[in-house]
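Our preliminary data section would be incomplete without showing what the modeling component actually yields. Below, a chain of 128 amino acids is followed by its predicted structure, encoded as tokens that our downstream tools consume directly.
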Amino acid sequence: MSSLADVLKISILGNESIHCGFHLLPYIFDIILSTLPSSTYALVTDTNLAQLYLPDVRTAFEKAAKDHGSKARFLVYEVAPGEGAKSRKVKGEIEDWLLDQSCTRDTVVLAFGGGVIGDLTGFVAATL
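Predicted structure:
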């Protein structure tokens, strides 16, 4: 896990809900695996971010899972970048993919990206 000195926690309405800093991937996956135990973690991102960061994201997850003794699956679904991804069609494609991957109620759905990815992934997670 990264040093706590690398991470600044910002309190909003009494809850330290914003974490910012350097070396966040190991920190984030340590927090996720500690607080949201699951058999499956499904990450939704866009193809631009996947091309740049997906190897580092996978490595950070695998290390955190090993540190936690977790044998959880880590699945990734990539969408085209931009507002066009925020559609009923893409939402349905993600839901179908999650079901095809045998995701269940304990699956943790993660967004890795900006507004479009966050909106789309949040809507999928809330309605599936």
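The radius of gyration is 15 Å. The chain has four helices and five strands. Preliminary results of this kind motivate Aim 1 of the renewal.
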